[in-house]
From TrEMBL, chain A:
Residues 1-19 have a biased composition (Polar residues). One of its GO terms (molecular function) is ferric iron binding. The gene is pcaH. The keyword Transcription does not apply. It comes from the Bacteria. Pfam families: Dioxygenase_C, PCDO_beta_N. This is Protocatechuate 3,4-dioxygenase subunit beta. The keyword Oxidoreductase applies. Residues 102-130 form the Intradiol ring-cleavage dioxygenases domain. It is an enzyme of class 1 (oxidoreductase). Its EC number is 1.13.11.3. Keywords: Dioxygenase, Oxidoreductase.
From TrEMBL, chain B:
Gene3D superfamilies: Aromatic compound dioxygenase. Residues 35-104 form the Intradiol ring-cleavage dioxygenases domain. Keywords: Dioxygenase, Oxidoreductase. Belongs to the intradiol ring-cleavage dioxygenase family. Pfam families: Dioxygenase_C. The keyword Oxidoreductase applies. This is Protocatechuate 3,4-dioxygenase subunit alpha. One of its GO terms (molecular function) is ferric iron binding. It is an enzyme of class 1 (oxidoreductase). CDD domains: 3_4-PCD_alpha.
Amino acid sequence: MTTQPISTDPDSASASQEQVDGEIAAIAEDYRASGVEETQPRLDYPPYRSSLLRHPTKSLHHADPETIELWAPCFGHRDVHPLEADLTIQHGGEPLGERMKLVGRIVDGDGRPVRNQLVEIWQANAGGRYVHKRDQHPAPIDPNFTGVGRCLTDDDGNYAFTTIKPGPYPWKNHRNAWRPAHIHFSLFGTDFTQRMITQMYFPGDPLFALDPIFQSITDPKARERLVAQYDHSVTTHEWATGYRWDIVLTGSHRTPLETETDED
Amino acid sequence: MADLIATPGQTIGPFYGYALPYEGDNELVPPGRADAIRLHGQVLDGAGAPVPDALLELWQVDADGNVVQQPGSLKRDGWTFTGWGRTSTDDAGHYTFSTLRPGATAPGKAPFFLVTVFGRGVLNRLFTRAYLPEDADALAADPLLTSLPAERRDSCIAAADAHGYRFDIRLQGEAETVFLTYPRH
Ligand SMILES: [Fe+2]
């Protein structure tokens, strides 16, 4: 599809959306033809220019997890204050935008809840601006919104945040590129092999098809797993809309004997 | 039990810097302590250029080879070794941890640090092990190292230096670091 060499400068913004769409479509077509299901993003995904010089070229090496890999760090109430789960109360006033509750449950690959474990989120404000010195696009900073939250999951693996719905924002992957609105999630399991960072998206975003980061997950069913659902049972009268997003980590390698408390 | 399909990962992106780092994140023990060592190095891309916006996490056993299950990594008290820390690379792609030398988990086992790499342009987290270089017999017997082609083994072995160890991470290219995947991934 590409007629000229791809620039390895991730901020060159040299390609058009049409060119990137063509690259995305060609990879999607190859994926459909392969018949082999993929469930995770590709590390080597040229439409996402920043990955060109940063993806391993050799395949990942299979290791049998041992010692430290079979355990995750432990976090507790000493680490995380309950109020850190409310991103709307960190300043003197109310942040602008759509106040929303965001809830979900984290389980491992066997369906067991990930209990009392750390969840970290960060996001842009309602105008699509991060409180980060490298985010220089001219959308307003909201003095009442930082966009960082933490919580611990409860005994059944549930997490809950109160926040503001983030806006989409431009980036320099290609000319006039826009990221679909998203919230970044950092997650731990019971084994360190389950450690992951990902992004949660909102249903029906018109930017999905145009975004190389979202499309680096070549399988449509796998992409759907990153999309939250509007859930009216999560909303609050005259206060907040509500979304639910459940998360599955990879399988644990510890046998139930090694796990202190197991499901009944 | 059900074998559920895992939620996909995504890149950490460029804007985590005001969210994930925290005070004392890379000091698993205070740097002045008598038994503190430095684990440091550079993260490099396929052109050999430093990666100034990578986030690394360190997870390791204590000096006696025990897995630690102590809270307090996010608000360190200066006395409790939690075994876990995180740090961002600086503008020269360099990172530093102040920590303890991990012990052998059993006699004859090769001690290692587990290092996880996140970065803009890195679409999913990368795992690698940084082995301590001293015990040649243990390294020669290690199941992971012996399963690697000889020319790739060194990419997983840290180099001893004056204050501890140096471990560079090459995301791509000739001396590319060995990155790991585990069963059920
Ligand atoms: Fe983002």
